[in-house]
Amino acid sequence: MILSFIHIRFLDIIDILLVAFLLYQLYSLIKGTAAIKIFIGIALIYLVWLFVKAMRMELISSMLGQVIGVGLIALIVVFQQEIRQFLLLIGNKYIKRSKLNILRYSRLQSGYSTSSIEYIAQAANEMSIAKTGALIVISREASLKSFIEQGEVLNADISVPLLKSIFFKDAPLHDGAVLIENNKIYAAKCILPVSANTELPKDFGLRHRSALGMAEVSDTLTVVVSEQTGKISVAKEGKIYRLTTNDRLSKIIANFLRKNDD
Fold first, then answer.
1. In terms of residue numbers, what domain contains 56?
2. Residue 70 dihedral angles phi and psi, to the nearest 5°
3. Which percentage of the chain shows pLDDT scores above 90?
4. 27 and 113 inside one domain
5. I want to staple 136 with a disulfide (CB 3.0 to 4.6 A). Which of 94, 117, 171, 223 is the partner?
6. Residue 33 and residue 37: Cα distance in Å, rounded?
7. Are 44 and 124 contained in the same domain?
8. 3-state secondary structure string across 202-225
9. What is the pLDDT, as a whole number, of residue 51?
10. In what order do the strands lie in the sheet with 232-236?
11. What pLDDT, on a 0 to 100 scale, did the predictor assign at position 31?
12. More confidently predicted of 223 and 219
C-alpha cells in the first residue's frame, strides 16, 4: 500500500475534531463583523507559512515565522472582544448549561425576586405600547461597574413607574441604558459598547446595536424597546432576536436568572 506508512491514532482524530470545533466556534462569533477579514488574512498567512516550511524555503519561512510570532500578540489585541465572548460562550453553554445541570436550575440568581421580574416585563410591555424607547441590561453574575462611567448611580428598588419615568422622552436619564444588578436598578444613562455586526436587520438602530454589543462582551440579558415600532427585542450570549406574540418576557428573564442549586 502506498499510504501504509501513515499511522492515524484515535487521539489524532480527536485532535482534528477539537481544532475543527474551535475554529467553527470562532468563525460563528466573528461572522458578519469586520474582524472576519482580519481572521481570513491571518489564516492565509499561516497556510503560506506551513507551505514554505514544508518546501524548506528557509529564508521566507523564517520571516513568516517571525511575523506569526509577533502576530500572536497583535491577535490578542485585535480580537480581545471576540476572545472574551468565546470564553463566555464556553462557560455559559458548555459548562453551566449542560443537560445534567439544566434540570436543576430552580433558584433565581443574586436575590432577584419574582415581583422584580414581573415589574421589568410589565414596564417593557407598557413602553412597547406607548412606543417609548428603552434599553434595560439585566446582570446574572457579571459586574456592571465598568459600564457606569458616564451614567448615574441610582441603587433603587425595581418598579414599573420608576423604569417608565427614566425612559420618558423628556426625562434627564432617558438617553442610555438602565443597568439592573442584584435585584436593584443600579444605574441609568449608561453607555454600552456598540456591536460591529454587519448582518443585523436594517431597522435595528443604535439601541439594538448597543444591546447586541453588551451581549457580546458580558453575561447579561438586555431588553430593547424600539421607539419606532414599539417591538421588544432581547439580546444575550452574543445574539439578538425579536419577541413574538407567543413569547413571554417575564419567562425569558426568569429562565436567564435561574441558578444551579447543586
1. 10-78
2. -70, -30
3. 36
4. no
5. 223
6. 8
7. no
8. CCCCHHHHHHHHHHHHCCEEEEEE
9. 86
10. 152-157, 184-190, 177-181, 134-139, 220-225, 232-236, 239-242
11. 67
12. 223
Does 95 score more than 80 pLDDT?
no
Rounded to whole angstroms, the Cα distance separating 131 from 188 reads: 19
> What is the chain's mean pLDDT, rounded?
81
Q: What is the dihedral of CA 242, 247, 249, 253, to 10 degrees?
A: -90
Question: Taking the model in full, what pTM does it have?
Answer: 0.65
Confidence at 100, pLDDT banded by 50, 70, 90: very low
| Domain end call among 58, 78, 98 | 78
